[in-house]
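Please go through this chain and its backbone structure tokens and walk me through the local backbone shapes. Keep your notes short.
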Amino acid sequence: MNNKNSNNKVMTINDVLSNAKKYKEHEQYDKAINLYNQIINNYPNNFKALFERAKLYNLTEKYYEALNDLDILLNLPVSKHIVHIHIADTLKALKKYDEAIENYLEAIDIKPDYEATYVPVINIMIMNNQFDKAVEIVDKGINNLPNSSDLVALKAKVYSKLKDFDQAEEWYKKAIDFGLNDRIKHVILTEYAIVKEKLGKYDEAMDIAKKANIAAQIEPAAKHHTTERIDNFITSAAKYIDTSQWKSQFTYTSNNPIFLMGFPRSGTTLMEQILYTNKNLVVTDEPGVMSAINFNLDHILNRQFCYPDDFNTITNSEIEICINNYFLRIKNVLADYNPNLRIVDKDPMSFIYLLSVKIFFPKSSIIMMIRDPRGSVAKTYLLIIYYINSFLFSKNISRIVD
């Protein structure tokens, strides 16, 4: 090469490669690619320049250009299994999953004891529901790398996707006994906790989930995630649901919504979707209308109102005001509101305000979704740590309970 630096010194290929690397580190990818182009124009089979340019093409989402370079590398004296892995990664980015799998398997055949090849190919197989093939490949990996906790955990993941939770539990336990990779420890522990939750082992699920939090260095969403606190919460809420206080003797003309209630993760969303298939119903999808009314009764009735005691003195006209306020709020949140359709008001935690519901709508239908409270707590907590940016209001369960 005839390149010269600012001191008019002839630069070697290694000098150009070094400069290209610096450009890459500073995210000046076009300049780095230009330097690799210079090398390849003079030395078409320079595998270092081809490989680095292919990686940059991938980084800048120029996947077909990357594949061209990688295809050339397959005919050069380089580590073929590494090239196949990069080809597979590129094909995966293009969502050409079958071709990606073929190249990952080529890499495994060349070097079956290279652990990094197994993880992406098995995950693609799981994603595409190729579970039998995934089991076959993960078994091959474990045979070649019998002490790999990552592969053992992958086998557990396959069984979990197959809903064979007993087998999944067994293999996750083996992975933990081997010792987990710190980099993915929190992920595997979270998956294990989900399996425990599926098996109904809620307390164990919570314990493992908390360990996952610690492994991920995440501050716990709530310090008191215990089933006892949830039991206390339900008991305290239940004291306001005394049927003797239901003033259903009031009569008035109004539509009567269907109120869909239940503790979080108890199946209210599934029930809502089922009800939505009925052409005579329209669903609200958690508008929080009933809770908003109860929080604003002072303003709505223009007098001091103490919940629930003042329901003993509420008048018919005040009830009508609350009903009108309810439908006004519903109209504001329902884009497809139609007065001829019956409303399904899905708001799981509105069972706290069941007294208000029965006073305002004594002829309404109520669907209460029931689940073991421990299951609700475990599932909610797992969602929080699995999707750490979740907007679930139950991020702080201890606050809700209090």
Remarks:
- The CA atoms of residues 281 and 342 lie 5 Å apart.
- Confidence is low (pLDDT under 50) at residues 218-226, 240-254, 387-402.
